[in-house]
Structures are given as C-alpha cells and as structure tokens.
C-alpha cells in the first residue's frame, strides 16, 4: 500500500520536534510537515474548549496541506482533544500521552515521578491511565514556566536550573526510580535533568513509542511513501529563529500566520 502524501505533526510550539525527530529517524522516506503553534503556547494553562479549538485550527491547516495522517505531538492536546478530533475528521490521528505504564511496570520502589503541564495532569485521559496502577505511588508535578523558557531559547539558563531543582528534589526525596516526562518540550531538558537526578533514576519520554505507532499505522492503514522526498517542512507563527536553533540550520523554517 503506497501513499505519497505527507505526515502532519503539530504541537503548541517547538517541543513536538522531539517527536518529529523520532519519526524522521525511523521513517526517513516520509515527507513531514510540522506546525509550531508557539503563538498560543503553552496549551497546558488553557481550558479544554480552548485546546480543542486550537487543535481543530491546526488540523484544518494540515488537511489543506493534504496530509495523510496527523500526529498530535503534544501531551496536553492529546489528553484534552484527541477524542474530539477523531470524532470530527476521517483522517487517522496518533496522540502522545505520558508513559506511565512502562514506568509503573518497571519501578522497583513502586514510586514514579511525572513532570507535566497542568492541562495534562487534570485531564480525564491521564487520570484514567493513572488509575490502572493503584499499587504505584505517582508523584505529580506541574512544570510551571518550563515551556515558556524553552520557547524563549532559555534551556540552559540559571532560571531553568532553579525551576528543575525545585520540581525534582521532592521526587528524589520521595524515592522515585522513574521520571516520566509528560510534555513533548521536556526531552530537550534531559541533559539538565540528568545533572540533578541520581544515576539510578531512569527518564522516560514517549518519542520512540509514537514513532513506532506511526510506522504501524502507515503499514496497516495509510500506506508508505514510495518517494525519497524527505525534506521536511516547518511552519511557526512566531519568530522562526528559536525553532531553527532547535532543529538545526540545515532545515528551513517558514513563518506563517495560523
């Protein structure tokens, strides 16, 4: 089954490029279109209805660009809007949610930490998943301010270090052995986080799992590209330089008002 249309990916900013990297690495022949809705970041502080409206806006644009499959590369958008998107559109959607399951199943201490946005932690989907692991203590922490610093290009700033230490130290003291990153922006903080966490605490994000799910969806439902046209397209509705710094100078970033 062949299908040369592009894969669409959107996020509330630059963070979903951590998901894009995994998809691009696993499926290098697939053309990808990435939307960074940085103008409206972070989604995690918005209401459910606001998040759904933003997701519909992004989806409509990707459908205008003739995408065959859409990856919602944002935990907050997935946990608040994926059901509505699947009900509204005939195109397949792949979402991203915090990887609680592998952390809970592998934890020796039965204590895991999750760093996520408020929108993810209060969502029905997140809480339904968390309820399945009653014997595991899940220590939740809202990452206030982290997305804004990442979007502002302040990943290695003193403010970032201070925030991360204040969020992670109570988890360390509580005895976690897994830290789940519940926002697609947060993998860019892994070098910073590793400086704070003891070596025995494992970090889990959802990037590889989403890429494998995308591959499976192409194989079973949508079809693979037969072209080697893999030059990805990137669009942002704010200053392109931050996105360009994250993905690398070899890629072109287009400013688009959406």
- Side by side, the strands of the main sheet go 4-3-1-2-9-10
Query: In DSSP terms, counting alpha (H) and pi (I) runs of 4 or more, how many helices?
Result: 11
Largest sheet: 6 strands, parallel
| Beta-strand fraction estimate | 15-25%
Q: From the structure provided, what is the oligomeric state, counting identical versus distinct chains? A: single chain
In total, how many beta strands?
10
Content-based structural category: alpha/beta
Ends apart, CA distance between termini: 33 Å
**What do the pLDDT scores average to?**
96
Explain how this protein is built.
- This protein has 258 residues and is of the alpha/beta class.
- It contains eleven helices and ten strands.
- The protein has helices spanning 17-26, 48-64, 75-88, 100-106, 118-121, 124-131, 146-151, 158-174, 190-196, 207-222, 240-247; strands spanning 7-11, 32-36, 69-72, 93-94, 111-116, 137-142, 178-182, 202-204, 233-236, 253-255.
- The strands form two sheets. A six-stranded parallel β-sheet has the order 4-3-1-2-9-10, with helices on both faces. Strands 6-5-7-8 form a four-stranded parallel β-sheet, sandwiched between helices.
- The model has no long low-confidence stretch (mean pLDDT 96).
Quick synopsis:
The chain is an alpha/beta fold and 258 residues long. It has eleven helices and ten strands.
Topology:
Elements: E1 7-11, H1 17-26, E2 32-36, H2 48-64, E3 69-72, H3 75-88, E4 93-94, H4 100-106, E5 111-116, H5 118-121, H6 124-131, E6 137-142, H7 146-151, H8 158-174, E7 178-182, H9 190-196, E8 202-204, H10 207-222, E9 233-236, H11 240-247, E10 253-255
Parallel strand pairs: 1-2, 1-3, 2-9, 3-4, 5-6, 5-7, 7-8, 9-10
Helix pairs in contact: 1-10, 2-3
């Amino acid at each position: 089954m062949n299908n040369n249309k592009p894969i669409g990916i959107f996020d509330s900013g630059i963070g979903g490029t951590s998901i894009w990297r995994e998809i691009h690495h696993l499926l290098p022949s697939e053309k990808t279109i990435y939307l960074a809705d940085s103008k409206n970041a972070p989604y995690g502080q918005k209401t459910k209805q606001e998040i759904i409206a933003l997701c519909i806006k992004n989806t409509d644009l990707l459908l205008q660009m003739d995408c065959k499959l859409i990856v919602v590369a944002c935990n907050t958008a997935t946990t608040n809007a994926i059901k509505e998107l699947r009900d509204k559109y005939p195109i397949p959607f792949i979402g991203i949610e915090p990887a609680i399951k592998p952390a809970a199943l592998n934890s020796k201490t039965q204590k895991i930490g999750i760093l996520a946005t408020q929108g993810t932690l209060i969502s029905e989907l997140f809480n339904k998943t968390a309820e399945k692991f009653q014997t595991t203590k899940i220590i939740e922490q809202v990452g206030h301010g982290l997305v804004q610093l990442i979007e502002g290009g302040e990943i290695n700033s003193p403010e970032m270090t201070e925030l991360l230490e204040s969020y992670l130290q109570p988890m360390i003291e509580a005895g976690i052995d897994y830290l789940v990153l519940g926002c697609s922006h947060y993998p860019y903080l892994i070098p910073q986080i590793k400086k704070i966490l003891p070596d025995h605490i494992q970090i889990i994000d959802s990037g590889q799992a989403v890429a494998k799910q995308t591959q499976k969806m192409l194989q079973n439902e949508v079809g693979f590209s037969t072209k080697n046209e893999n030059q990805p397209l990137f669009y942002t509705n704010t200053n392109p330089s931050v996105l360009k710094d994250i993905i690398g100078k070899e890629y072109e970033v287009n400013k688009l008002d959406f």
